[in-house]
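Sanity check

After download, print the first record. It should look like this:
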Amino acid sequence: MSLFSFGPSRGPRWQIGVQAALGIAVPIGTMTLLGMPILGYIAASGAFTVLFVSTSPVVERARILPLVATGLIVCAALGVAVAHSPVLLNVGIVVVAVLSAALSFGFRLGPPGPLFFVLVFGLSATVMAKAPVPPAVYLIALAAGCVFSYLVAMAPMALRRARQVQARPLRTLLPGPAWDADARMLVLRVAIVAVAGMLLGLLLDPGRGYWIVGAAVAVIGVAAARRVALQRALHRLLGTITGAAVYALLALLHPSGLWLALLLGVLQFSIELVVVRHYALALTLITPLVLLLTGAATGTIGDMSVAFERIIDTLAGAALGALSGLLHPRTKPDTPTAA
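Expected C-alpha cells:
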C-alpha cells in the first residue's frame, strides 16, 4: 500500500461506482426538486448500502444487502435516540463500534467492515442535534435511501446472465458466527480504539467522538496485520488533510441543490474507482464528500472550523488505529486489504 503507486487492479469498478453515485445523487436531486432537500441529504446516506460485497454476483448481493441496510437503519435509529444526550451518545458509539465489529468479523462480511455502521450512527446523531427534522421522518428518509440504493444494486438482475448465476446459501455467504484468532484480535482492537476515541471526544467535544472512532476503525480495516495498520494510518491522515483542502475549495463555490447532487455523485463515483487501489487518494475524495453531505444537512457548508476539527479528529483516530496494530505479533504475515 504505497503512497506513490497504485495497487493492483481487482477488476472493473465502474459498475459499483455508478450504483453508489446514483444512490447518493438521485435522492438529493429528487427531494431538491420537491422542495425538501434536507430529506434528500438524509436519504443519501443510504447509498452506503451498495458499498458492501461489491465484488459478489448480484444474486448473492440480493441476499446480503438487506441485512446490511437493516444494520444501517438500526444504527441510525440509535443515533437519533441519543442525539441530545452527550453521555448516551458517547456510550452509544462504543456499543455500536464493538457490536458492528463483532458481527462484521464474526460473519466474515468483508470490506468495508464496521466503518459505515459507526459513521451512520454518528452522522444521524449530528444531524438530529442540529436539523429541524422529526425523528420518525429522519428514519423514514434514511430507510427510503437504503431501499432505493438496494434497488439500484439489483438493476443488473434485468440481464438474463445475471439471473442465471446460482446463488450460494446465505449460511455459506455469511458463515458464522465464529471468531478465529484474527477476528478476535480485530474486535479487541475496535473495542480499545472505541473506548479511547470516546474519551478523547469527551475531552475535545462530545459530539466529535464518532469521527475519531470512525477514523480509527477505518485504519483497522479488515486485515489482521501490524504493517497494514501503520500504512492505513498514514494514508488516512494525509488523505484527510488533502481532502479538507479540497473541501475548502469546493465550499467557496457554495454548492447547493442539483449542483450539489451532481458534485456528490461525481465524488462517490470517483471514490469507488480508486478506493481499492490507493487509499490516500480515496480519502482525498471521501473527506469532502462527507463534509459536504453533513454540512448540507446541518446548514454548515463552508465552515472551515469543521474541516479543521476533522483533521484533528482524524489525526487522533489514525494514531489510535495504528497503535492498536502493535497488538499483532511481528511474525503475523501482512495481508493486502481493501478499504
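If your output differs, re-run the checksum step. Summary of this record's structure: Confidence is low (pLDDT under 50) at residues 332-339.
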